[in-house]
Amino acid sequence: MRAYIIRRVLLLIPTFLLLSILVFLSLRFLPGDAIDALAAQMASFMDPDIDREKLERMLGLDQPMYVQYGRWVGGIFLHGTLGDSLLGAWRVEEKILARLPATVQLGVMAIVIGLLIGLPVGIYSAMRRNTAADYVGRAVAIIGLATPNFWLATLILTFPAIWWAWAPPLTLVPFRTDPLGSIAVFIVPSLILGTYLAAATMRMTRTMMLEVLRQDYVRTAWSKGLQERVVIVRHAIKNALIPVVTLIGLQMPILIGGSVIMESIFSIPGLGRLMLDALNDRDYPVVSGVNLTFAAAVMAINLVVDVIYAVLDPRVGYR
Fold first, then answer.
1. How distant is the alpha carbon of residue 70 from its chain centre?
2. d(CA 286, CA 297)
3. Alpha helices in the chain (DSSP H)
4. DSSP β-bridge partners for residue 91
5. Which residues, in sequence order, are CB contacts of 311 under 8 Å at separation 6+?
6. How far apart are CA 293 and CA 233, in angstroms?
């Protein structure tokens, strides 16, 4: 198991480098640049005749791309810094650390809600196959998969405010200061984000449970006269969860993308809003830092998923 984990960690290094190159280059192909945004801001309240070449030299954007990339990556690996914002006098990592708790809380709550709904419903639906409860669960799962998160969030914000003069709380409350108040702020966007995960988890759990229940060792357990709860908990769930764990890992990029939308709609000051604001300003270091943070989070989560997969199926560790 230890050798397997070491191999997986070592594979993250070239993956991280490749992602850093893709993140760095993709931003440079966007129309416009930080000089245009900064020049427009300075021209509005300072000198309308901005020297573009001087600004490029000040910000280091006059250097070739490979020099800019080497300086950026070198700062990450040698100094642990993501650089300075082009439009503000602050470190990118400091702003990310300040916004990170809100995004983490939103993602964790969405995952917990999705699993608390998807796993039990999927198991129950498989155990009561082709019953009314099974049909209802499958229909709800299809609706959850087909409903866009941004559309559902817009409905929740709009119609309750029109019909009942109610809107979810939009003022961020730190979890350490007021846990219940913080949960109240995040519960609606977390439910919306968790809906898709719950639907996908429910369908995969149901499919795998049906497959496991057909296996000979499960039939043997039934033939011994064991109770249903014992058969499910001791013999079926562990094997059925192996593909489900993989699915959960694959859903993480979708959750991260959804968090960007939820933070914008519900005015949550997280990494998603930070990235959108930086994109509008073409603030390359901030956008690159946030994207790299998201990519590192996805890689770390998939590493945890691989380890859990190896725990559930010991044969994986020998590959």
1. 28
2. 16
3. 2-28, 34-45, 52-59, 65-74, 92-127, 132-146, 149-164, 179-213, 216-223, 228-230, 237-265, 271-281, 284-312
4. 84
5. none
6. 37
41 versus 188: the higher-pLDDT residue is 188
Give the Cα-Cα-Cα angle 161, 197, 26 (nearest 5 degrees): 90
Which of 229, 222, 218, 237 has the alpha carbon at shortest distance from 122?
Answer: 237
6, two tokens: 């070491």
Q: Is the dihedral of CA 34, 292, 100, 148 positive or negative?
A: positive
Full-model pTM: 0.81
Cα 246–247–251 angle (5° rounding)? Answer: 120
Count of CA atoms in the C-beta half-sphere (13 A) of 79: 12
3-state secondary structure of 91: strand
CB 235 within 8 A of CB 150: no
On the 0-12 / 13-18 / 19+ scale of CB atoms within 10 A, 176 is exposed
d(CA 223, CA 229): 14
3-state secondary structure of 84: strand
Alpha-carbon Rg for the chain, nearest whole angstrom, is: 24
pLDDT at residue 269, as a whole number: 86
Q: What is the DSSP string of 96-141?
A: HHHHHHHHHHHHHHHHHHHHHHHHHHHHHHHHTTTSHHHHHHHHHH
Task: Centre a 10 Å sphere on the Cβ of residue 290 and count the other Cβ atoms it contains.
Answer: 29
Q: b/e string for 77-101 if b means 16 or more Cβ within 10 A?
A: eeeebbbbbbbeeebbbebbeebbb
Neighbours of 32 (CB within 10 A): 11
pLDDT at 170: 74
CA-to-CA distance for 234 and 229, rounded, in angstroms?
A: 8
pLDDT digit string, tens, across residues 256-309: 777 888 888 888 888 888 888 888 777 788 888 888 888 888 888 888 877 777
* Amino acid type, 124: Y
